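>> Question from a student workshop board

For tomorrow's exercise we were told to take the sequence and the ligand below, predict the bound structure, and bring the output to class. My setup keeps failing. Could a helper post the expected result so I can at least see what it should look like? The ligand is NAP.
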Amino acid sequence: MSETNRAFRLRKRPDGELAEGDLELVEEQTPELVDGQALVRTQLLSLDPTNRIWMSDIRGYMPAVPIDAVMRGIGVGEVIESRRDDMPVGATVSGFVGWQELVLADDNLLEAPLAVLPEPLPAPLPAFLGALGHTGITAYIGIDNAELKAGETIVISGACGAVGSIAGQLAKERGARVVGVAGGPDKCRHAVAKLGYDVCVDHKAEDWREQLDTATPDGIDVDFENVGGPIMDHVLGRLNIGARVSLCGMIAEYNTYNPGGEHSGGLTNIGQLIMQRATIQGFLVLDYGDRFEEAIGHLAGMLGAGKLHYDETIVNGGLDAAPEALAQLFTGANMGKLLVRVSD
Ligand SMILES: NC(=O)c1ccc[n+]([C@@H]2O[C@H](COP(=O)([O-])OP(=O)(O)OC[C@H]3O[C@@H](n4cnc5c(N)ncnc54)[C@H](OP(=O)(O)O)[C@@H]3O)[C@@H](O)[C@H]2O)c1
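>> Workshop helper replied:
Here is what the output should look like for this input. Compare the format with yours to find the bug.
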């Protein structure tokens, strides 16, 4: 049966922050299903800093979302109609659902096939987009790539975010001294009290550089970098010999990925990689599909043992709320994984 879908289509590439008119909310009819297709109702949409990257026509790791296409996005949903055996009605699926209420699950049309989640779910549904989903896996891979050892000092920016909050706990599990960088005293208190950071530096405080110096008296062995910009630059200036930078993200500059423009960059301490014989490794979680099971198994084990705390900021208001909610990632209004509840 044909249904009315509501979807955000990208009409214009943002210049700076996402602005009104960049996306348009449209109503469209879904096609009648044919064999090999299912219809999925989106329940939760994951808002990720990379959403802003995907809107930009830069040299990215995936093609930019084409103008007029449905905005790319990761989410979970329920199969409501089906003409495929592997996706029965009632099944819960996850993957690239797009910023839309209804998804035509056709492997030939979607960027990647949706995955069917286990039944019954071993954890609450939102966790599959966070601690047990792509951001949790990112934290696991980023810590593992850095070969973090007991007794080393690691700095994690975006310390209370979806990736950072899990990375902090994985670092602690390895016996490291774990220093977080987060925005504001509330987040910093939370980082120490709930996420197990040894200390947290408030990057919104005027003296954040001094705070970071005091927090890392023996220098920095590993930088789990989520933010870039001046924070990363200051961390680079404190690297120890043989340090490793696990370069996960640079959210501080995503809003400068503008049409025809150059992003700001501006790392003045990059030369310290030479002086300290340090290494920097950019990585993308998408390249580690063969380790997802291992990562999820580890994180689920910690969760089951009561050794993993995770936070979610779930924005209500349906799909309509997504563009405005995305801004939370750039102002720091979110605590933990940012999600939009599209339907129940
Ligand atoms: N490589 C990969 O495969 C991969 C996968 C997922 C995510 N990532 C990257 O990982 C990073 C974190 O992603 P996430 O999903 O976990 O987001 P998140 O940390 O939950 O949210 C973003 C956080 O970044 C902080 N922030 C934003 N602008 C900042 C600025 N100018 N200076 C300092 N802090 C700023 C804010 O926290 P405060 O309140 O603390 O400022 C905000 O809450 C992003 O850079 C993302 O692109 C990479």
